[in-house]
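[SOLVED] Need 3D model of a two-part complex

Original post:
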Amino acid sequence: MTLSRPRREEMTEAKSARNAAAERYRPQAIEKKWQQKWLADGLYDTDLNAEQRFYLLTMLPYTSGDLHVGHWYPMAPSDAVARYHRMRGYEVFYPIGFDAFGLPAENAAIKQGIHPHKWTYANIDRMRRQLKSIGAMFDWNSEVITSDPEYYRWNQWFFLKFFEKGLAYRAMAPVNWCPSCQTVLANEQVLPNGTCERCGTPVVHRDLEQWFLKTTAYAEELLDFSKMDWPAQITTMQRNWIGRSDGVKVAFALDTPGVQQKEIPVFTTRPDTIFGVTFMVLAPEHPLVPQITTADREAEVEAYVERARKQTEIERLSIEREKTGVFTGGFCRNLLSGEDVPIWIADYALLWYGTGAVMGVPAHDQRDYEFAKKYGLPIPVVIAPPDWDGGQLQQSHVGPGTMVNSGQFDGLRNEEGKRAIAEFIEEKGWGKRTVSYRLRDYLISRQRYWGTPIPMVHCPKDGIVPVPEDQLPVLLPKDAEFKPTGDSPLARHEAFVNTTCPKCGGPAKRETDTMDTFMDSNWYFIRYLSPHYDRGPVDPELARRWLPVDQYTGGAEHAVMHLLYARFFWKAIRDMGLVEGAEPFLRLFNQGQILGPDGQRMSKSRGNVVAPDEQVEHYGADAFRLYLMFIGPWDQGGPFGLEGISGIERWLNRVWNLVQSEPSFAEDSSPELRHIIHKTIRRVTEDIEHFRFNTLIAALMEMTNEMTDLRDSGRVERQAWSEAVECLLLMLAPLAPHIAEELWERTDRPYSVHAQMWPLWDDGLAREEQLTLVVQVNGKVRDRIEVPAGIEEARAKELALASPSVRKHLDSANIQRVVYVPGKLVNFVVDASSG
RNA sequence: GCCGGGGUGGCGGAACGGUAGACGCCGCGGACUUAAAAUCCGCUGUCCGCAAGGGCGUGUGGGUUCGAAUCCCGCCCCCGGCACCA
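Solution:
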C-alpha cells in the first residue's frame, strides 16, 4: 500500500509549519561551540605512534599580520583533504606553524618603531586566532615558530654540519645588492626587471664575502624527479632552472709574456664549431683581464669594466641586448686550427657560468654574430646549412649541417663532428667533456638583524672557526639597533660581536650576518614532529616513522626557490644519515593564486585585500570554506568576488532544513534514493581524491536537490532516507565540519561525525538503470529516448527509428550507415540529398 | 624570443571524441506577506516563430571524423615562468 501523494499546496503548508518550528541555522553559535569542544576533547591531537599514517602538509604562512583570503584559499581545501583521510582510517598528521623571520618584520619595525620580535609575536597571536576560526583540524601541539631559539638553534646546528661536509663555504662574489633593504639578495629574489622582489628598488652589484650553500653539488640528483609525484609544470620549471648542458671544456693557448696562466679554458656545447672561432670573449670581471690587456687598450678596458660593474640590473637589461665590448689587445691560440684569436671583453659573457669565457663563433651563434657584425670581425662558415650557396650568411646558422673549413673534420655531419672533435680534444689532452649547470650555489648571508645568526667566529689567529655545538644557540640579542646601514645591525652590537675563539681562547669576533629565511622553510616540516625535542633537530624515531611527507600542498610561486632548496637540503641531510628516502615531499599539489576582485595580486598597498573575518562573522566559517572550494578548480585560482556566496549560504540552509525534516515515508523501498546516494558517494570520493572540490560540492547540491524532490513527492522509505541523511552528513563533514557535526548530533547520531568512516559506494546501486539515448541524423540531435541500461543494439536502433521526430529527417531508403554507441547514441547517416 | 597554462551564457564555472552550458550567481515571473526581507515554485545561450519546430553557437581560420569545446595544423589574445646560460 502506498500513501496518496499530497497535493503541492498541502506540502508547502506542512513544510513551512515544520520550518517555523525548527530552529534556524545560526553558524556563529554552532561554530564556536564545536571548535571549543573539539579542542577540549583533543579530537585532532595526532597519535604519532599510530600504524596507518598520513602526513599532510600545507605551506606555513609568513607572519605578515592579518590573514586574508589568500591564506584561506590554500588551507580550507587542504583541511578537507586531511579530514577525508582521517575518515578513511588514517592517523593524519596535519600541522601548522609560522614562518617568522625575515625582512618585512624588520622593515615594519623600522617604519613603526616596534621591535621585530614584538611585531612578529603579536602577529602570530592574531593569526593563530584567525586560523582557529577556519575550523581546521591542525594539530596545535606541533606548532613551530621559526624565530624561536629552540627552532633556529637547529638551523645553526645544520649549518655547522654543512660546514663540516664542505657544503657551506665563504667566498667573495659579486652579489645582488638592494640599496633600500641594505642587504644582499639571492638571484631568485631579484625580479626579471632587475628590481628587488620586496621593495622594487633597482638592484646593483657589489663584491662581498658571503656564505653559500653548495646546492650545485646536488644539481644532478635534483634533476631526477622519478621518486616523486609532482605536477609536470613544477618539475619542468626546476629542470629549466637547474639548466644542465652537456659540452666540452677546451683550452685556448695563452702565451703572454709575464702572465703565468698558459691557457684560457672555455666551455662550449658546440665543439663542432670550433674551427669557426674568430674571437674570444671574457666576462668583464674575469681575473685574466688586467693581465692580458695591453698598455694601449688599458684605459678603454678599465672604463668598460668599471661601467659593467656599476650597472644596475635595470640598466643592463634596458640596453636591450645591444652587444657591447672592448678589445683587450691580447691574443690566444685556437689549438685545433692553430689560428691566433683576439681576446675581447663583453658583458654578455657571465663570470659565473661555465668558465667565464666564451669562444666567439659568429657564424653559428646569434650573440656572437651580432657582436662580430658590430665590431667588424670575420664570420667564417664551418657548418654548411643544407641550401648554402657558399657565400656570407645573413644571420647565424644554429641548426644542423655539414662541416666545412674544419680541417680533417670536413664533410662530417655536425652531430658526428661534435663527438669526433670532443674525442680529439680529449686525446690531445686539451680538454674534456663537461656538464655545466645554470643553477648557482645558494647565497644565504643577509646583512640584517631578524634572522638566524650564522654560528661562526672570526679569529685573527685561527681564521674562521665554527661555534661548538654545545654552545648553540647563538642567541639573537634582543637589544640590537636594527636600523639598516649596509652592515648587519649585529656588527654594531659590541656584546654580541666580541667573543673568544673556541679554538685558541683569544679575543675574536662573531660572524654578524644572519641566514636567509629559506633556511627556515627547508626543514620546518621535519621539526613539526617533535618541536621541543632538544637532543637533535628531530626525534629520530618519529622521523623514521613519519617522513617523508605524503602530500604537500602550496603555491606554485615557490617552484624554484623553496621547493628546490628543500629538496637540496633533504638530500644533504639524508647523506648525513638524518633522514631516509630520496625526496622530502612525495606528492605535491599546487593550488592557484587567489587575486583581488580587480584581478591583481592581493596586497595591502593595492588596497584590494579581502579579509575573511567579517565574511566569517556574517556567513560562517563553513559557508566561507565551501565557497572558496566552490568558485572554481583549486589549481586555477583567479579573482575573488563574493557574488556567489549566497548560493552556498542558501544551500547550507536547505541542508539544515532537509536533514531535520520529517518526511511522510512510503513503504516500498526507494530505489531512486538509493541510486542517488551511491552515485553521489562515488562522484564525491573520486573528486576529493583529485582535489576537484568545485564539482564535488555540485554533486552534493544535486543530491540535496534530488532528496528534496523525492521527499516532497512522497517516494522515500524510512531506512533509505536515514541512509541518505547519514551519507550526506558524512560527505559534508570534511568540507563544512561544524554544520555536519551539529546536524549529526541533532539527528541523534553518536559524537563525533569526524570520527566516522567515510561511506563506501555499491557499484550496482551507483550504476544508472535508465539511460537517455541520443538519436542523431547526420550528427544532428533529433530526439532523446529513455531506455533501460542494458538495452540491446538492435532494440535501441529499432526504438530510435520509431521516433517521429527522427523519421521526419529520414528517408529510410537512404540510410547509409548506423552508428551505435552503447548507452550513448544512435546516429543515422543518410546521404546529403535527403538529410 | 623560449617553456608551461588558458580563452565556453550577463558572471564563477561543468562536460571518458557522443545531449554544450551540470552546479551556482545575477535577472525575470509567480506563491507566501499589510509590506519588505527571508523562504519556496517556475523560466532564463542566441536568432526566427503565436506555437510546433528550426537555424546559429565553446577566441579565429583550416583539417581529421558518422560526430570535435575535446584530436591535428596555422593565427590572435590573456596569465605564469625563464630570458645574453656559450
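Edit: The CA atoms of residues 68 and 610 of chain A lie 6 Å apart.
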